[in-house]
Automatic annotation (TrEMBL):
Record has Magnesium as a keyword: no
Composition bias, Pro residues: 11-20
Signal sequence extent: none
Annotated segments matching region Disordered: 1-53
SMART domains, per database record: ZnF_BED
Organism: Canna indica (Indian-shot)
Protein name from the UniProt record: BED-type domain-containing protein
Pfam families: zf-BED (PF02892)
């Protein structure tokens, strides 16, 4: 009686140990990923914020409106669409503003009496 050995599976080879103990859990990771894992995370610095405009000393904010502290005139002020340029221009022409600079060389015209 002869045994048929063709249907038997070939013997399996024993599993190979990892080549380097540090690579045991890192199989399938590229060298770039290794570098990013091994190096400490870089701390991202925040962009410095801009100082508030000097216009806010002379105006009071209410929702999306700004009111002049001197003449009580109301202006639109929104961070995205309405900046502070119009507020600063108003301060130059506001007659009730005590800090307004008047050009001494500029002559004023008096109309009628």
């Amino acid at each position: 009686m002869q045994l048929d050995t063709s249907s038997q599976a070939p013997p399996q080879a024993p599993p190979r140990p990892p080549q380097d103990p540090t690579q045991a859990g890192n199989q399938g990771i590229t060298s770039q990923e290794k570098d990013s894992q091994s190096s400490p995370k870089e701390v991202l610095k925040r962009k410095p914020t801009r100082a508030p405009s000097s216009a806010w000393i002379h105006f009071t904010r209410e929702n999306n409106r700004a009111t002049c502290n001197y003449c009580k005139k109301i202006y639109a002020c929104n961070a995205t669409s309405h900046g502070t340029t119009n507020l600063l221009k108003h301060l130059r022409t506001c007659e009730k503003n005590p800090n307004r600079e008047i050009d001494k060389k500029q002559k004023t015209i008096v109309l009628g009496k």
